[in-house]
Design goal:
Length: 310
């Protein structure tokens, strides 16, 4: 646990002393970019600070160790209206299996109808493009409830018109009790694997590997149930960045969630970049979540998720 805390602090120091305005030399060098888009309304509302949060099937996309806290048959579905008329969806089903929790998941991204043009610039009809990743996850506790380990094996596919690429990858994650009551530490690494076939025989894109470390904490003496979360994300194709989120439970099963991500920060005119917000509502064994984020140059992102027992 001390080592994990030191890693978070070290990553923060690297980020702080780096020139954040300089373009990273590795930017744009990986394929399957949809794997870098966060899954789920709750996680998005919290600014992507989700590595040390458990109890959701959407954890398969952030830290597979987090699914163990589900502990019952459950399902989760999420729909996203993303940028420039693109759409995304996520579906997961969780099944307890003895000391383990298993989950099957599908994450897809579609780009709608795209215009085809010839060398002369004239329209030649339309074509489609989409991405999908299917996975099976497992999580199990060790040393009592002090440590939980999880992993996901997945197949990834991208199609553009008549061209296609696919890959196999693994995600690994852990959750551990923090040094004070109510604190959880988490770490995960996503998309470790290899591209099986690329869009052409002469070129195959590499996978976007994401290393995450985070902390969540339930303060003991706050008047309302409160969750604080902070993550650091280290991608292999860009600079490290921090994510922050707060979750406040109100009366009547209503939860409010503001978040902030330093992946995009600063101002675009009068509008702040990196902010997100959302809410959740408990509905007798089901939970409805919504998240909103704005990208001034590209548009707004809306996410809605429904999860619960089956």
């Amino acid at each position: 646990m001390r080592l994990l805390c030191r890693c978070i602090l070290l990553a923060g120091l690297i980020w702080a002393v780096d020139d954040v305005h300089a373009l990273n030399d590795n930017a744009g060098t990986t394929g399957f970019s949809f794997l870098k888009v966060g899954v789920g309304a709750r996680a998005a509302a919290l600014g992507g600070a989700y590595t040390a949060i458990s109890g959701d099937l959407e954890s398969t996309a952030w830290n597979p160790a987090g699914i163990y806290a589900v502990k019952e048959r459950a399902t989760a579905v999420s729909l996203t209206s993303y940028l420039v008329d693109t759409e995304a969806g996520f579906l997961s089903v969780g099944l307890p299996a003895g000391p383990r929790m298993l989950a099957l998941s599908v994450n897809y991204f579609t780009y709608g109808e795209l215009q085809r043009t010839g060398e002369d610039g004239l329209a030649q009809g339309t074509f489609g493009a989409f991405d999908v990743a299917t996975g099976i996850s497992a999580a199990q506790p060790f040393w009592g409830d002090r440590l939980t380990l999880g992993g996901t094996a997945k197949w990834i596919y991208s199609g553009i018109d008549d061209y296609a690429a696919d890959a196999w990858a693994f995600d690994l994650g852990l959750l551990a009790n923090g040094p004070i009551p109510g604190m959880t530490l988490g770490a995960s690494i996503s998309n470790l694997g290899a591209v099986r076939s690329g869009f052409t025989k002469d070129h195959t894109d590499s996978l976007p590997v994401l290393l995450r470390a985070g902390m969540s904490h339930h303060p003991a003496h706050f008047p309302l149930p409160l969750l604080l979360a902070v993550d650091v994300t280290i991608p292999n194709d860009n600079d490290p960045y921090f994510n922050f989120g707060v979750e406040i439970e109100l009366a009547g099963g209503l939860t409010l969630r503001p978040g902030y991500s330093l992946q995009q920060s600063g101002l675009d005119g009068d509008e702040a970049l990196g902010l997100s917000t959302g809410a959740g509502l408990d509905l007798k064994g089901m939970r409805l979540d919504y998240a909103y984020a704005s990208f001034p140059a590209l548009g707004n992102v809306h996410r809605i998720s429904l999860s619960g027992r089956i």
